[in-house]
Write a structure and sequence with these properties.
Layout: H1 2-37, E1 42-49, H2 54-62, E2 69-73, H3 78-85, H4 94-116, E3 121-130, E4 141-149, E5 156-165, H5 170-190, H6 195-201, E6 211-220, H7 228-237, E7 243-246, E8 252-253, H8 255-259, E9 263-268, H9 276-289, E10 300-307, H10 308-312, H11 320-332, E11 336-340, H12 345-355, E12 360-365, H13 366-372, H14 384-393, E13 398-402, E14 404-405, E15 412-413, H15 425-433, E16 437-439, H16 452-461, H17 472-481, H18 489-494
Parallel strand pairs: 1-2, 1-3, 9-10, 9-12, 10-11, 12-13, 13-16
Antiparallel strand pairs: 3-4, 4-5, 5-6, 7-8, 7-11, 14-15
Helix pairs in contact: 1-2, 1-5, 2-5, 5-6, 11-17, 12-14
Length: about 500
């Protein structure tokens, strides 16, 4: 009897704690909404498709919404949505969101500028999402954004983000979406001068177990000095997302859309700087990758991956100049960059496999493959090294291995003759026998001694031999920008 009473009290206490936490969330979110409602500068539209009018609801609950909300709407029917915003192939997409933002802000400016344009900052908030369906099992995600005038009569600025809703209950997903929307509006209006602080505030009163933000983009006059690649990296650094991605055109990409229906080939490295070895590894791996019948004829997405552990290098903050130097140099090589918080290869593989059904290949050198057979590096998994390889190599994932040269005797070591010790050699031989490791035989022998850290030393020392160790586009940009201690072309000209 006493045990039953104790259990009931424990359940009641947990329920009370949950309700208390939700009350704290409500109070904080209502305060943000009320602050906006009581600020006479802001006036605009809230348009939502897919999960109810969850953002608008907070403003109406807070009171004083007549001072902020010119219109709230939700066009669920596709025909109605198309009539308002134009035809669309995909309703949960960035293109649909952009159409909503442009349409609603233009309407506000056209209809209301004459009466109140000199004193009002007009805005349009929109989201288009797919929440958990009645049957369940669908991906729950969406696009959200705000387009606004930072000052009356000003050109608009814009913030767009992609969210994934992780709660397993539709009601909780709607609640989380509403909170993120209020956070976004509050941050855009009051924290826009500090983009890093703005990004960090998006999950105020939420956890990364409820919402993931895997893409954010700033644009417009108010954010003309914001580099979206830095903001993408900040998402990963703060734990708001496990990955961020951007292309050689410097534009951030939504990872799921970029990976969808693509075979993926990824090379992890420091790329400080990218060398001819890095590029040859990818080229050789791609040639071997495309010979797989399951890959032949399919679009292949090459990724150059930087991990947060590598970028932080033991520090609390990423060196921004160093980060941008690396990604600018990779862009000069035409490469798409992936920033990830998945130091374990099996976690990276799981992320990619969840977003594409096509083949996945990982490119690495012999030293990295040897490290994979260090049992201590897998000690955090209950199943140790066996669990790690089981997770990594499922779905026919292949590891493409570039050779190395033994610095002591000059012999070349490939994946075919690598030795990992007597205890683990049978495991290595088994995995090699099943085709998990693909030795790359197409390589340039003189490249095998090139190391990024050696290139860096030569750049800093003014030893011009470094130029032959990197692609021509990389060398030109290092000199032009003065990366890694190199005297820039402008400095040389002045001297």
């Amino acid at each position: 009897m006493a045990q039953g009473v104790t259990q009931l009290l424990a359940v009641d206490r947990r329920r009370t704690e949950r309700e208390g936490a939700r009350m704290d969330v409500a109070v904080d979110t209502l305060q943000k909404a009320l602050k906006i409602n009581l600020d006479p500068r802001w006036y605009g539209t809230v348009a939502e498709i897919g999960a109810g009018q969850e953002v608008a609801r907070w403003f109406f609950r807070a009171g004083g919404a007549a001072g902020t909300i010119a219109k709230s709407m939700s066009a669920y029917d596709m025909a109605v949505s198309d009539a308002v915003y134009g035809l669309s192939d995909r309703y949960v997409s960035r293109e649909r969101l952009q159409a909503m933002l442009d349409h609603e802000l233009d309407l506000n400016i056209d209809r209301l500028s004459t009466d109140r344009g000199e004193d009002t900052c007009f805005f349009a908030f929109a989201d288009t999402v797919v929440a958990r369906s009645y049957k369940g099992g669908n991906e729950c995600h969406g696009w959200m954004g705000v387009q606004f005038q930072a000052h009356p009569m000003d050109e608009p600025a814009q913030i767009v983000l992609h969210v994934r809703m992780l709660d397993d209950d539709a009601g909780l997903q709607q609640e989380a979406l509403g909170i993120v929307g209020v956070n976004l509006l509050h941050a855009a209006f009051y924290e826009r001068a500090q983009p890093e602080k703005l990004v960090a505030s998006l999950l105020d009163r939420l956890s990364t177990g409820r919402i993931e933000i895997d893409m954010i983009s700033f644009s417009g006059i108010e954010f003309r000095r914001v580099d979206n690649r830095l903001m993408a990296m900040e998402l990963v650094h703060l734990g708001l997302s496990g990955v961020a991605m951007f292309g050689p055109d410097r534009e951030v990409m939504q990872p799921s859309e970029a990976l969808r229906k693509h075979a993926v080939l990824v090379e992890r490295g420091s790329f400080r700087p990218p060398t001819v070895v890095n590029m040859e590894m990818l080229d050789a791996a791609r040639a071997a990758f495309e010979k797989d019948p399951a890959v032949a004829g399919k679009p292949v997405l090459e990724l150059t991956e930087l991990t947060m552990r590598n970028l932080l290098a033991g520090a609390e903050q990423v060196d921004r100049r160093d980060f941008l130097a690396r990604v600018d140099l990779l862009a000069a090589c035409g490469k798409t960059v992936l920033i990830s918080d998945y130091y374990d290869y099996h976690r990276l593989a799981a992320y990619l496999a969840w977003r594409t059904r096509e083949r996945i290949g990982i490119v690495m050198g012999v030293p990295s493959l040897r490290y994979l057979f260090d049992e201590e590096s897998h000690a955090h998994l209950p199943g140790g090294i066996l669990e790690s390889f089981g997770r990594l190599l499922k779905n026919d994932l292949k590891i493409f291995v570039y050779p190395m040269v033994d610095t002591e005797d000059g012999t070349v070591i490939t994946a075919e003759d690598l030795e990992v010790g007597p205890v683990l050699q049978p495991l290595f031989d088994y995995l090699a026998g099943r085709g998990s490791f693909v030795a790359l035989g197409d390589y340039t022998p003189e490249y095998l001694t090139i190391l990024s850290r050696d290139v860096l030393k030569r750049i800093a020392a003014g030893d011009e031999s470094w130029r032959s160790m990197v692609p021509p586009a990389v060398a030109a940009l290092i000199v032009k920008r003065g990366f890694f201690g190199c005297r820039s072309s402008q400095e040389v000209a002045r001297a």
